[in-house]
Structures are given as C-alpha cells and as structure tokens.
Predict the 3D structure of the following.
Amino acid sequence: MEEQKVSGEINRVAVTGAAGFIGSHTCEGLLDAGKTVIGIDNLSTGKRINLKGIGEHDRFSFFQADICQEDAMATILGDFQPDAVIHLAALVSVPIAEHNPDENYRINVLGTKLVAQAALKAAARRMVFASSAAVYGNSDQLPLSEEGPTNPINQYGMAKLEAETLLLSYEKSHDMTSTCLRFFNVYGPRQDPTSPYSGVISIFADLCASGRPVTVYGDGRQSRDFIYIKDITRGIITSATNTELPGGIYNLCTGQGKTLLELLDALKGIDPDVPEPIFEGEREGDIKHSLGNPSVARRILGFEATTNFAEGIRELQN
Ligand code: NAD
Ligand code: UD1
C-alpha cells in the first residue's frame, strides 16, 4: 500500500460497499487494472467471503466501517488520500427502504453526502455513485433515457435521485468530477439468492441448480434490462479511472429487454431437466417492462454491455 499519489493518473481508489455483490467484483477489477484499493463496508448485507480472492492482495486493504460515521470516513479517506471514490454502499432492499424511510434517508442520502464530503476533504478528483433505474419509476416511455422524466415511486428511488442531485451540485462547486451511474437489473455470481427480495435471476439460477421449480409471478412475459456484473464493473471502473471522461448521469444497461420466459429458456439450455415453473398471480406493484437506452453512455463513456445473455446465465451455473 506504499504507492504514492501521482497527479494526473487515477491510481488510488476507495470503494464503499466493497464486500457486497457489485463492490467485491469492482475491487477485483480495479486490482486487475493495477490500482491500489481500499474497501469499506459495515458488513450489513455484504460478506467477508466475497473478498476471499483478494483479502491477502498487497494492493488491497479492507476497513469494516459505517459510511454514516463521519469521523471514521474522514480518517479512512484522509489517511488513504484516494484519487477516486466509488460509492456503492447502500440500503439496497426496496421493500425494507419503504418500511424504514428514515433509515433509507440516513444511509442513502445523508450517507452519500458524508462520503462525498470525506472524498472532497481527502482531495479525491473523481467520485462514482451507484444510482438506479428506480429513479425512473413506472414509466411507459421506453426505452428509459437520461434526458427523460424521473418519477420515483418508492423511497429507495427517491433517495437515489436526491443523492444524484447532491453529487452533481458538488461537481459544480468543487473540483471533483461526479458520475452517477443508473444501473438496471444487475446479475452475476455472488448475488445473494436467499433473500425474498433478491433479483429474479439469482433466485431462479439457485432453484434450478438444486432441481427445485421456480415461481413465476404473472405470465412470464414481463421483461427487464438484465446486465451482467462484468459489464457493470467495466462501466464503473472506466468512469472512475479515465480522467478524460466528464461526470454526469448515465444509464448502465444493455438496451435489450429479456422476458422471464426467455430467462427460463436460457436456464433450460444449460440443464434440460429443470422442473416446470409454477405460475402464480402478478406481484403487487410489479412493472411489466423495464428497458434502458444505452446511447448516452455509449457516446460519452464509450460504454457497451458486451456479455451475451445466454453466456452470462451460463457463467452463473459454473
Ligand atoms: P449489496 O447489498 O451486495 O452491496 C451493498 C453493500 O453495502 C453491502 O456489502 C453492505 O454491507 C454495504 N453497506 C450497506 N450499508 C452500509 C453502511 N451504512 N456503511 C458501510 N457499508 C454499508 O448490493 P449490490 O447489489 O452490490 O448493490 C451495490 C449498489 O448498487 C447499491 O448502491 C445499490 O443500490 C446499487 N444498485 C444495485 C442494483 C442491482 O441490480 N444489484 C441495481 C441498481 C442499483
Ligand atoms: C426491482 C426490485 C424491487 C422493486 C422494483 C421497483 C430488486 C431485486 N427488486 O424489482 O424490490 O420493487 O425494482 O423499483 O432489486 N419474479 C418472479 N419470481 C421470483 C422473483 C421475481 O416471477 O421468484 C418476477 C418479478 O415479479 C418481476 C421480475 O421477476 O416481474 C423481476 O423481478 P426483480 O428481479 O425483483 O426485479 P424488479 O421487478 O425490477
């Protein structure tokens, strides 16, 4: 961890939410790119085992800390002096955020503010924030574009939108480039399938792998813009480390909707013996289709999601 801060290049990167699904893959990708990395996580939903591949890496250090503890964040970032901060830590469950609006606001809005302030104090030059397609709400203007309206329909989406506004206002008044990435439905290894609020792909893949039937809510024709973890981490890492790229708001999506029936086909392609699904009524508040427009990220960040859907699903079963 002795590498010096060199002006110009982004070499030292701090990642909040490092022990989570997206955070652990992001840390691995940064280390592969030769960066010196610290991971910060309070292990509320994240797990140390997610970091087992990099725990002993000589360019990686882990700090168990809460992003809402101002002093701890100031000390950790002040000591490390990151060139860039990637802020992924959050209360991620939409239903839990809905039932605990104060906690949602404290972690997802005020926590983001504390991370940004500590980053500024430590003279970080770039900050990347994990926003969400949830800021769009239930829009029928598909595909969803950054220039289009935002209309969050839950506390989680509201907090992500407010955090975006806050970070972009910091960019105007301080010398820190802020990039807010609106992730669509991310999937990949290490996404916890055990929670009832997990993403559908991790739930289905887990059930199929153990020969149990999946439950489809509705007719299975609903669609989502599922994006593979390796594509997401590439978008995050490029945004954090390429100093030529401007800040702003970008969708990270594929631009292609896949239905649950197509997901089941992909799983059957791997194991033709998976049991027939059980169909139940639609989940309350479910949206029928979600699809992002990737053109702004393509044009400005040069970002393209390249993982073929069937390939990504196969990776899950390895
Ligand atoms: P995750 O739960 O695996 O990761 C979140 C991490 O943040 C966990 O390791 C958790 O322990 C940590 N954390 C939570 N509160 C903290 C706090 N107060 N202090 C320190 N650490 C804390 O979830 P994920 O899917 O990896 O999500 C990462 C980010 O991406 C989140 O901001 C989430 O809102 C956003 N996002 C995810 C998706 C998706 O499909 N997975 C979609 C849109 C946005
Ligand atoms: C995401 C959130 C959800 C939130 C919604 C709107 C996650 C994991 N989910 O849901 O909490 O309310 O955005 O902001 O972040 N499905 C099944 N069977 C299952 C699980 C899911 O059929 O076992 C269906 C769902 O009903 C849905 C689709 O699969 O139609 C996708 O579900 P999910 O992965 O939860 O994503 P979102 O619906 O986008």
